[in-house]
Design a protein that fits this description.
- The structure is a homotetramer.
- Chain A has about 120 residues and is of the alpha+beta class.
- Helix content of chain A is about 30%, strand content about 25%.
- The first copy, chain A, has one domain: Cytidine Deaminase, domain 2 (3-Layer(aba) Sandwich).
- In chain A, strands 2-1-3-4-5 form a 5-stranded mixed beta sheet.
């Protein structure tokens, strides 16, 4: 799948978000190195700080399925990742992160998304 | 599946946790009203506050799969849920929560786990 | 200060909350064992899960000021604490938690707020 | 105060961290535009994801004290900020963030720390 196809699928997946508080639906899709495609959406909570972003439901789903950091080739998201999710993308050593920015679809490394990263991995 | 069987499966699932920082592996299993069984594990991050507990990877996985609050009958966990996860179990209107406490397996409602709950749902 | 006075002060403090996303302003006040009174408010973030509740800004402020778990006698809040904050109140061994519930001001222990608590302290 | 002085104070403040789980003590100091200096430390919880980083206890303390986004000139930290805290530094429109990286003290803007930032402020 191309980056554009992965992003299109993330847009489609976003409809399943549970976001009754913000009504801001986010979708994320991962292409694993073995070809598997996984999905994530944001899941909010009435106590806002307890919610979980789409990138984190995606990557935690990957762990539940048996994957580990290093197994993810691409993550495509319907929006630029928040800082917290950048730290997860970094932890999982995702090779390429695809999202819309400035009106176009961009691809970034986690080092580009989190420059001068604190490194305790 | 009985509560004991669901708990036994949660124990087995815990092996897939990504918990390199605490080395504390937690597993959680949900029995949905339609009979589906789903799994969750804790996923930690080098920046500890960004981690996600097993109950939340479980329930966010349920949302990704198309389920909604009200669809979960039982959640069985390898340990007593933290307060943050109790708020999630409450949001998802889980009917029965099963976990070890005081040396035995107990079953609790979310109202029992979160008395005097703040209600903004 | 009485519980009602502490609660009244929490109501007053809530005006300082930074809650542009939910517009739900929460205030919290702690009476320390040495007589010091401390304040907290919720602080939200555009990425909702990164926000911090009033009870947690309150207790983290206490730590910055040099206090430790066991030093807090009462925490009064303008609303029932979410599960995540109950876990903090439990960690800090707060003796009494005061908040409105069912139309009156109630006082609870952390054991009452978090029954069957997971104990790794 | 110079950046080096602010960082030295953050190092000193870190001793007050409540970090019994990671034993990783972080300190943060803010110089507000009006000259006020504020402090923060990380505060952990037995349930790791409920903890709060030093930068967030610092900035939430600023809010409790009456400050708002735009009021912070410099934040100095004893370590590179995690992604979640970068999102907070961005939300608060902090002008300059000072921390050690690659063996020296660096100063960064929040735009440099969070390139292609998602903007919903």
């Amino acid at each position: 799948m191309t980056d554009a196809e992965l992003h299109a699928r993330a847009v489609s997946v976003a409809a399943r978000a549970y976001a009754p508080y913000s009504e801001y639906h986010v979708g994320a899709v991962a292409l694993m190195r073995d070809g598997t495609v996984l999905e994530g959406v944001n899941v909010e909570n009435a106590a806002y700080p307890l919610g979980v972003c789409a990138e984190r439901t995606l990557l935690s789903g990957a762990v539940v399925a048996g994957f580990r950091p290093g197994d993810v080739e691409v993550v495509a998201i319907t929006a630029s990742p928040c800082g917290g999710c950048r730290q997860w993308l970094y932890e999982f050593k995702v090779e390429r992160v695809v999202f819309p920015s400035g009106g176009e679809l961009v691809a970034r490394t986690t080092a580009e998304l989190l420059p001068d990263a604190w490194d305790d991995l």
